[in-house]
Design a protein that fits this description.
The strands form two sheets. Strands 5-4-3-2-1-6-8-7 form an eight-stranded mixed β-sheet, with helices on both faces. The chain is built from 15 helices and 14 strands. It is an alpha/beta fold. A hairpin with a 3-residue loop joins strand 1 (2-8) and strand 2 (12-19). Helix 1 (60-72) crosses helix 3 and helix 10 packs across helix 11 (296-320). It folds into two domains: 2-147, Nucleotidyltransferase, domain 5 (2-Layer Sandwich), CATH 3.30.420.40; 196-244 and 272-385, ATPase, nucleotide binding domain (Nucleotidyltransferase, domain 5, 2-Layer Sandwich). The protein is globular.
């Protein structure tokens, strides 16, 4: 079975085509700058060269047409007909309370997804645009929606409710939803498979740390808490997002700066976090370079970033009643050896014994990085959200 996975952002489309029998990635790439000047499609060729095809790509349907054209092309393609693609799986950011698992996409499902737009106005519309485009371009091909929020729908009310009037939850579904669910689900299961231990018996903290980041507390195979909230702003300090902030500060800034809701949303989403504190960059590599040059604000931003992660690990260890496995994933989690070391060396009181020599050798590969006598296993597990989406799509289509 061949499955095409699409991740449609506001101005981009990432894609992967899987052969699910061999678990091989047949093709992958992405369209960037949709609707903007200089839009292009880029992908790796069979010989490893990077190919960039420029063109006027004004909306998502045109972008998906470009992708399908490349998949079919004589020079770069890997299929001879679109009929070789058996199904399409879509990443959908927000499923609200409607969706607690991946679903076969029908007209009724699309309508419910449209109702979730107000919960994720920046993310869900492009996700839906991809679904509309596939329907237009590929007819009745089976489509499946895989939701970032679905994994966290197992959280109990005490974890997902905010201390606001209950009527606001009833009227507007204001609650914690959490994100990165597909990643947390994949890496926590993969870790237990690799260790040969029962997933349903473990207490796991999954740390997905990248430009956006979140931690998830997983007990008995289900998410019981997560650091992101109703939106992806809450929780850890991130590349450009503020993370946890006193709600009273929001109205204070709006009044002092004389700005409205859109401006404050842009402030906490795009101009805060590592970028806002350091004044240097949202990229951890550039932050580290600035620290090496003696930049004190960059050092403060890094210390805040690190501290917030450690604080959540401590909180979630308490919420789980102990800890069996700590996982690092995401671009920073998989590659920043210094960050993993600094976190783990401060958590020795929990029984974590880091194998520092092994840790420094692990970049983007799966490994246990603690010593054999460590009470808690710490692992690096590269995430593969696209494969998880493809796997869910295959399972649903085969039912």
């Amino acid at each position: 079975m061949k499955i095409l996975v699409l991740n449609c952002g506001s101005s981009s489309i990432k894609y992967k085509l899987f052969d699910m029998e061999s678990k091989e990635v047949l093709a992958q790439g992405g369209v960037e700058k949709i609707g903007l000047k200089g839009s292009f499609l880029k992908f790796p060729a069979a010989n490893g060269d990077k190919v960039v095809l420029e063109g006027e790509i004004l909306e998502h349907q045109a972008g998906i047409e470009y992708i399908l054209g490349v998949l079919l092309s004589e020079k770069y393609g890997c299929i001879k007909s679109l009929s070789e693609i058996d199904a399409v799986g879509h990443r959908v950011v927000h499923g609200g309370e409607e969706f607690n698992s991946s679903v076969f996409i029908t007209d009724e499902v699309i309508k419910k997804m449209e109702e979730c737009i107000e919960l994720a106005p920046l993310h869900n519309p492009p996700n839906l645009a991809g679904i509309y485009a596939v329907k237009e371009l590929m007819g009745d091909i089976p489509q499946v929606g895989v939701f970032d929020t679905a994994f966290h729908q197992t959280m109990p009310p005490k974890a997902y409710m905010y201390g606001l009037p209950y009527s606001l939850y009833q009227k507007y579904a204001i609650r914690r939803y959490g994100f990165h669910g597909t990643s947390h689900r994949y890496v926590s299961r993969k870790a237990c498979e690799s260790l040969g231990i029962p997933y349903e018996e473990q207490r796991i903290i999954s740390a997905h740390i990248g430009n956006g980041g979140s931690l998830a507390a997983i007990k008995g195979g289900v998410s019981v808490d997560t650091s992101m909230g109703m939106t992806p702003v809450e929780g850890l300090l991130m590349g450009t997002r503020s993370g946890d902030v006193d709600a009273g500060i929001i109205s204070f800034i709006m009044e002092k700066e004389n700005i409205g809701t859109q401006a404050i949303s842009t402030l906490v989403n795009k101009h805060s976090g590592l970028l806002g504190v350091s004044g240097v960059s949202s990229d951890m590599r550039e932050i580290r370079a600035a620290i090496a040059e003696g930049n004190e604000k960059a050092k403060l931003a890094y210390d805040m970033f690190l501290y917030r992660i450690k604080k959540y690990i401590g909180a979630y260890t308490a919420a789980l009643g102990g800890l069996d496995i700590l996982l690092f994933t995401g671009g920073i989690g998989e590659n920043a050896v210094y960050l993993r070391e600094e976190i783990c060396l401060d958590l020795e009181f929990l029984g974590i014994k880091l194998d520092t020599e092994k840790n420094v050798k692990i970049y983007g590969e799966e490994a246990v990085i603690t010593t054999p006598d460590s009470k808690i296993k710490v692992m690096v597990v590269p995430t593969d959200e696209e494969f998880m989406i493809a796997s869910d799509t295959m399972d649903i289509v085969n039912r």
